[in-house]
Design brief:
The chain is mainly α. The chain contains eleven helices and two strands, in the order αββαααααααααα. The chain folds into two domains: 50 residues, no CATH class; 229 residues, MetI-like fold (Orthogonal Bundle), CATH 1.10.3720. β1 and β2 form a beta hairpin. α5 packs across α6, α5 packs across α8 and α9 runs antiparallel to α10. The longest helix is centred in the last third of the chain and has 39 residues. The two termini are 17 Å apart.
Length: 281
């Protein structure tokens, strides 16, 4: 409980510090004409380029559209819930694939040596190049756009789960595996009774990385899939009308960041519950 409260206080302090740096940079730029010792600032500090933090936060309580009583914050939370659902589906699918690959690689070393370089290479391909192809394939197969977004999220999620799960499955000491073999344990029993329990901390470490990646994948997928919903589409819309309300784009980015943080925190809570007995030792 104390650790959670302390972490919350630290997180809040970081946000306050970031806001102070933002406002300090803007105030300095306004006072010096965006030049310091003859060197121009890398980012202009006018209200169009850098709205005040208060203006950005104030936009969240203002109407999202003319004639619509719903505030921008409520609207963005609704769009973020769509993105979270797509990211969650992608995380589940990618995690299951990652666990399956880890088990295969554990028991079939030649397959691991042959496929692992290709898995690593798959993560070096820019997502903006992969996303349109997945959207096109999904459309040709008659799938709804949200499934393509889920596929993109799963594409980013499976790799960290695969790597961390494989490391965890290999983590039990040799003496423990030899003992179980000596009492006649089968390969399946060795996997479920020893390797998987030992791998849980590693799996959750991979899931935390995968959760962040799945949210990013869902947002990028929404930009390509044309779903019409999601925080990614909101960011694209507000970027298009940026000059009419730059604070709305920053507010959408802020909500997207908070969405990713909350998604990871939910996984942290699940991890604490699943590993509660280990943590108390």
């Amino acid at each position: 409980m104390r650790n959670g409260l302390f972490s919350g206080v630290i997180g809040l302090a970081v946000l306050v510090l970031m806001a102070a740096v933002w406002e300090g940079y803007k105030a300095l730029g306004q006072a010096t004409g965006d030049r310091l010792l003859g060197i121009p600032f890398p980012v202009a500090t006018d209200d169009l380029s850098m709205p005040n933090v208060g203006t950005i936060l104030g936009a969240l309580v203002e109407p999202a559209r003319r004639g619509d009583p719903a505030s921008l914050g409520v609207y963005l939370l609704g769009e973020a819930s769509v993105t979270l659902r797509e990211a969650a589906y992608g995380l589940v699918a990618g995690s299951l694939l990652g666990l399956l690959l880890a088990v295969v690689f554990l028991h079939l070393a030649p397959v691991s040596r042959g496929l692992m370089p290709w898995l690593v290479a798959s993560q070096t391909v820019p997502l903006v190049a992969i996303a349109p192809m997945i959207v096109i394939w999904g459309g040709k197969a008659g799938l709804p756009p949200w499934m393509a977004v889920t596929g993109i999220a799963a594409y980013l999620a499976f790799f960290p789960v695969t790597i961390n799960s494989l490391r965890g499955l290999k983590s039990p000491p040799q003496v423990q595996t030899e003992f179980m073999r000596s009492v006649g344990a089968s390969r399946g029993q060795l996997l479920f009774w020893l390797r998987l329990p030992a791998a849980l901390p590693y799996v959750f470490a991979g899931l935390r990385l995968a959760a962040t990646a799945s949210v990013v994948g869902a947002i990028v997928g929404e930009l390509s899939a044309g779903t019409g919903r999601g925080i990614g589409r909101s960011i694209l819309t507000f970027a298009y009308y940026y000059s009419n309300g730059p604070e709305k784009l920053y507010a959408a980015v802020l909500v997207a960041a908070v969405t990713g943080i909350l998604f990871v925190q939910v996984l942290n809570l699940i991890e604490r519950f699943a590993l509660r007995n280990r943590q108390t030792r």
